[in-house]
Design goal:
Structural class: alpha/beta
Number of strands: 14
Distance between the termini: 20 Å
Radius of gyration: 21 Å
Strand order of the largest sheet: 3-2-4-5
Number of helices: 12
Shape: globular
Length: 373
């Protein structure tokens, strides 16, 4: 049996007619940028996120950069970011000239540890960027309380968790202005790069709209130095079709995760995902960890090799923490500076999880893991 890490077969086969109709609608309209399809998707996605406003942009990285620009964050400012995240969160801070300040995650949920945030706050701190990693909602009640206490902005990086909740409130609706990605592999994925910003603040929404469109609200009249980062009509139309099915896909993802949990619990040497109290997960990824480091006998790398030999696709999210990347050598971070992020990077492995994954495929993956241990 072959079990790929990711398959679009079920989602895209079932929606092929609707997506083709959406494509034809855009194609025949002769309007491909900033048109009615974008407006419709922005309205629908804002409603889904329980926010007043949504602005579609070109990709998730641009979404965070534009969010920072709307808040006038720049050189000399510090931004609290997770030490355990995809590098895009750090890059956005760097691109506006600010300094990313890493804070370690909780070892059980992998999300930024609210109990460590205040220790990282200085007079230069302006923003906290919590990342709802792997589809697990961060403890936003605690994070928002810290931000309020210290008069800081919050930008949620919601790229992996559309639909997750903390205390019943949906992610992407807590922060002052929030960013998401619709990269094809995301739970709500476009057929190319795409992203969006959500907010309840009309002033920030207006400014984000201007920034994404060359700094112009009215064509050829440029109020500020903006960028070109607009969600195109075709991707917006496709996302609008997919959005109607997102909740059903999330239910299926949770059902698959529950089956993994049931079959993989109590395996000595393997750690399965944990969700924080009062939070939910949408399982963008199902991430397990080994008790031994990557290169050790019986460690993560050997587990991955074993699964590969058995026809099972896996990925490592993420093998090198941002602070140890060559891109951030100027900070002179060394191994051991952020040990929790480093341990996660050395021991984590993402298993296949996507709508359409069959029970027999889940059993096959779990049996192979049990055989390894």
């Amino acid at each position: 049996m072959q079990v790929p890490f990711l398959s679009f077969n079920k989602m895209h086969n079932e929606l092929k007619v609707e997506i083709s109709q959406a494509f034809n609608k855009v194609y025949d309209s002769h309007w491909y940028i900033m048109g009615n399809c974008l407006k419709a998707f922005e309205a629908n996605y804002a409603a889904y996120c329980k926010t007043k406003y949504c602005a579609g942009v070109a990709n998730g990285l641009d979404a965070i950069i534009i969010a920072l620009k709307t808040l006038n964050i720049g050189p000399g400012d510090e931004i609290i970011v997770p030490s355990n995240t995809y590098i895009a969160t750090w890059l956005a801070a760097s691109y506006v000239g600010a300094t990313p300040i890493p804070v370690e995650p909780r070892m059980d949920t992998y999300n930024i540890d609210p109990d460590l945030i205040e220790k990282a706050i200085t007079k230069k701190t302006k923003v906290i960027i919590p990342v709802h990693l792997y589809g697990q909602a961060c403890e936003m009640d605690k994070i928002m309380a810290i931000a309020k206490k210290h008069n800081l902005f919050v930008i949620e990086d919601n790229a992996q968790a559309q639909g997750a909740k903390c205390n019943g409130q949906i992610t992407g609706s807590f922060g002052d202005i929030n960013a998401t990605s619709f990269y094809p592999g995301k739970n709500l994925g476009a057929l190319g790069d795409a992203g969006a910003i959500t907010t309840n603040n009309e002033e920030l929404y207006t400014r984000a709209n201007i920034i994404r469109n060359y700094g112009s609200e009215k064509k050829y009249y440029n109020e500020i130095k903006g960028i070109n980062s607009r969600l195109d009509e075709l991707q917006a139309a496709i996302l609008d079709v997919k959005l109607k099915y997102l909740d059903a896909w999330t239910i299926e993802r949770n059902e698959i995760a529950a089956k993994y949990n049931s079959r993989l619990k109590n395996i000595s040497g393997l750690t399965i995902p944990v969700t924080a109290a009062n939070c939910t997960a949408v399982y963008h990824l199902y991430v397990v960890r080994t008790k031994k480091p990557a290169s050790a006998a019986g460690g993560r790398n050997e587990l991955q090799e074993h699964l590969t030999k058995n026809g099972i696709g896996t990925l490592i999210h993420y093998p090198i923490p941002a602070h140890l990347q060559q891109a951030y050598k100027e900070f002179n971070y060394k191994k051991g500076d952020f040990p929790i992020a480093e341990e996660i990077a050395e021991t984590c492995l993402s298993l296949p999880l996507y709508p359409g994954l069959k029970d027999e495929e889940i059993d096959f993956v779990c049996d192979a893991i049990k055989a390894f241990f």
